[in-house]
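Reviewers of the previous submission asked for a worked example of the structure-prediction workflow described in the proposal, so we include one complete record here. The input consisted solely of the amino acid sequence. No template or homolog information was supplied to the procedure at any stage.
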Amino acid sequence: MTHLSYSPLIRARLTHSGLLALLTFALGIPVGAIASEHPLSTWSDRPALATPAAALEEDNLTQVTSVSQLADVQPTDWAFQALQSLVERYGCIAGYPDGTFKGDRPLNRYEFAAGLNACLDHLNDLITSATDPLARKADLGTLQALQEAFAAELASLRGSIAALESRTSELATNQFSPATKLQAEAMFALADVWGDEQAGGNDLDDNATFAYWVRLNFNTSFTGKDELRVRFQSNNIVPIDGEVTGTSMTRLGFDGNSNNQLRLGDLYYRFPLGDRTRAWLIANGHGTDGITDPLNVFLRSDSSGALSRFGRFSSIYRGVRGPGMGIQHRFNRHWSADLAYRAPRGSSPADESGLFNGSYGILGQILYQPSATTSVGFTFTHTYFDEADVNLTDNIGSAFAQRPFDRVDTQANSYGLIGSVQFSPRLNLSGWVAYTDAQAKSGGDRGAHADIWTWAVTLAFPDLFKDGNVGGLVVGMPPKATHNDLDSREDRDTSLHLEALYRHRLTDNIAITPGIIAIINPEHYADNSTQVVGVIRTTFAF
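From that input alone, the workflow returned the following structure tokens.
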């Protein structure tokens, strides 16, 4: 074997190869494993740090003088002797403040560089101080042997790193935006409705339909904690409502018709206000259920949840809509509060419009989560609609519940109770009940009052028959005007909403959801015959 001398050239060779092999042995990761079993691209599982200094500050490594100071290193470990040598002879291995080495976890590049630099600094000191007995020719010979033994692996590592850097550079050059992600959904819906006649007695148009819905979401983050959502969508799913069935109770939860035109859907910006608070600025779209939690986690989504408009969540949230703002604050892991203010015509400068001079809605909600499987919430809304905008439930429930005094200025206070219990990983029970006190604020019946009630119970069966699938049942009473000072606009009987669905995930990106919806006594009138809506919804998400 050729002996090494203390020259700058030898120092450089130790830096580039021999010490790399020695350090990777000391850290418990063979050189070949870095290139194969632990590729650099997988190290992003750990939080990314901006600088090597940030990495050292986060991990707060501390120098140890004996391998016995590392509580998780045992004499039976395969790398024990290498660690003992590096700690006690060379002093270039550091531990964590809790007295551990954490030799079995992935290593990021900043940590590797910091450890390598520590060893280089210390060994360079030993080399330059030739009188130090710890730096022997035998040690340097060992390093050279390691260098020669792992020359092929080191060459492979350098090649892998060069290839990854090239691929990373290409992706950075060709990506759409460094801060914007594209999410897309496409939906096809096959639907039909059956019944003897419309609510009210007219003929029922029971033609089967096949329609679509497409969404493109551009989600941009400027800080990593905020989100700017821009959504474009096109659809031709004509609502199954009064013109078809004589009632809005048969509407689907994902309907909408833009006449095949691409239009702006959501436009909002969400950002943090401290560690426990975040806020929304909403210019268009984005339902209030996106600000606060309606506690119907498995059935709330319009693309993967309940098939009906009624079955997704309580109608109490739908009265607060339009441009506006929202705030969500978490007090601790048990309690949180949400606030929202929105105006249906907040973008219009016309008379009796704008944010504060026309229709508006205010929502407040308190959520309490006593355990990871149980949640309960109380919701309050105060809404005011002028005669052009009045629709208290946004097309859910009976016509009398939507406009209890017909088209006059209407003010309403609503109170809701929601709850959810996860009995097991495969069974969730959720539900809601809501009461609205409405008052006419204009017209000849000014001052008239109406009481409106609604309730529902939902059952969800996650992973039913197969992981990723969901079965669902919904039973409830659509909004009903149980009392009205205008006797002619009071609902006499009670409708019942029954719904069953099964979402089957064909792949990670494709799901098909067949289901059936039955409305008994539509429009809360016993003389109206039962109406049944059959749906097959197919969703593509990518």
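Confidence is low (pLDDT under 50) at residues 1-59. We consider this example representative of the routine output the project will generate in years two and three.
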